[in-house]
Write a structure and sequence with these properties.
75% helix; elongated; 3 strands; 4% strand; mainly alpha; 9 helices
Length: 238
Amino acid sequence: MRKLDIESKAGETEITDRLRDAIINRQEFDAGAPLRIDALATRFGVSHMPIRAALHRLESEGLIVAQPNKGARVVAVDEIFVGQMLDIRIVIESYLARRAAERMTAQDLSHLETLRARHEDAVAQGDAPLALLANREFHAAIHHIADNRDANLILERHWRLISALWRRYGYESDRFAGVVADHRLLLAAFTAGDSESAAAVTAAHTARAKLVLLNRMRKAALSSHPQPAGEQHDDVSR
């Protein structure tokens, strides 16, 4: 690939990331807001080409909808949107873990052990961004071993969106310990060649991540729109 092509691709990725973050953080782009190419090109100081590429990518992620003769509009990034996206990931990731367990080699296990240790080192150092990156590398390696192109394409489509959501809503420090424990259980299942346990651990792992993220979204919504004192509920009573 030529240098110009690489630079153009990097620029498109940056614009996509910035626009995605702006939508998730609701910076001028509430649900239903129109996304006009001319206005976006002026906002980001670029030509129409990277804007079109960014809109195409965000449409594939489900963040925007494009209608004929009406342009693109922002969708509601709410609990329903996020929950449904993560429900799909639970099914696909557990399937890929089962398939990976059936295809796992000694070399694959050694590589996953290295990635697991890298993740635990990042957690021990309290480096959340590095821990999140190492976590992605660990699971990406499992998906690569599973070798199902279509399933991987679906997961790949949303990973930047999910990362942006964690940045927006934060990541509870005690969750890292749970991730470490899940990775160890998953490696134990792979080592034993137990595909069903690998699938079960992965499903539970992704389901917990879903619950944590949705809970943080609810807390953020309540803090921005606090209920009147007479309408507040005691979680303990539920």
